[in-house]
Write a structure and sequence with these properties.
Layout: H1 6-34, E1 38-43, H2 50-61, E2 67-73, H3 78-85, E3 90-94, H4 103-112, E4 120-124, E5 141-147, H5 154-157, H6 159-164, E6 167-171, H7 183-193, E7 198-201, H8 210-226
Parallel strand pairs: 1-4, 1-5, 2-3, 2-4, 5-6, 6-7
Helix pairs in contact: 1-4, 2-8
The protein binds guanosine-5'-diphosphate and magnesium ion.
Guanosine-5'-diphosphate (GDP) binds at residues 44, 46-52, 127, 171-172, 174-175, 203-205.
């Protein structure tokens, strides 16, 4: 035996990482509840349309609700600059190589925002269909985007993300006819994996489907606003 106890120690370390994250995620939840603010975690592959979806949604509801965005990227601040350019508070987190956001990074971003004035905080997670699904941030809603250009086999390859999400946005519907993406195959497949998931078909490019999604989100924000609070 080359590494006695090695595997067990690795498992214990991993459990420790998840437990520590879970604890801070709960603190984030409490902070959000105290301020009656809603946090939405947007997860997808790089290029699926996370930033565009956030910007389109803010176009639709950003005047009625007070909104801010936390941007997670390995490096750079391109997305935060785009959001700030539209006049919304934006905080960039650089993970420096890590492929997902953790609750403690989001906590430090929330502490820099005027939480008592906010109704909605979008968190754009790092582009990745794997690890973001494993790290809770204390969010009210986990939203994943699958764009039709990525192919319709993704639920089979990345089942955890599809199982964990509350909402699936199928984006780039304007490109459907140029791809072999089979909508009628994907929807029942995802429904079978996650019976309660909400699905919206959207084109951020053309704006189609955005209103229906925005209406759904508006109801979630309003319910949170009417809940307990401080
Ligand atoms: N055709 C098309 N392109 C889109 C759509 N949504 C986003 N894009 C493009 O896809 C690219 C990546 O979008 P972005 O929002 O930056 O993706 P992110 O990396 O997930 O944040 C950009 O060139 C967008 O213009 C859409 O609905 N249709
Ligand atoms: Mg982006």
């Amino acid at each position: 035996m080359k590494n006695p106890g090695g595997e067990k120690r690795k498992v214990e370390v991993l459990e420790g990482v998840f437990d520590a994250n879970e604890m801070i995620a709960r603190e984030n939840q409490e902070l959000l509840q105290k301020n009656k603010a809603c946090m939405v975690n947007i997860m997808a592959s790089p290029g699926a349309g996370k930033t565009n979806l956030i910007m389109r949604t803010l176009e639709s509801i950003g005047q009625r609700f007070s909104c801010a965005v936390v941007e997670g990227d390995i490096a750079g601040k391109v997305d935060a600059e785009k959001i700030a350019g539209d006049g919304f508070p934006a905080i960039q987190i650089n993970t420096g190589g890590s492929c997902h956001l953790e609750a403690k990074q989001v906590k430090s971003a929330l502490e820099r925002l005027e939480m008592d004035k906010l109704d909605l905080i979008f968190v754009e997670n790092v582009g990745n269909l794997v690890c973001p699904a494993e790290f809770s941030l204390g969010e009210d809603l986990k939203v994943m985007i699958l764009s039709v250009a990525e192919g319709d086999d993704k639920p089979l390859k990345y089942p955890l993300m599809f199982r964990e999400s509350d909402v699936l946005i199928i984006n780039k519907m304007d490109l459907l006819g140029f791809t072999d993406f089979e909508l009628e195959k994907v929807k029942p497949l995802v429904r079978g994996m996650n019976p309660s998931i909400r699905m919206f078909e959207i084109s951020c490019r053309e704006g189609t489907g955005v209103e229906e999604w925005a209406k759904y989100l508006e109801d979630v924000i309003t319910k949170k606003g009417e809940s307990g609070g401080a």
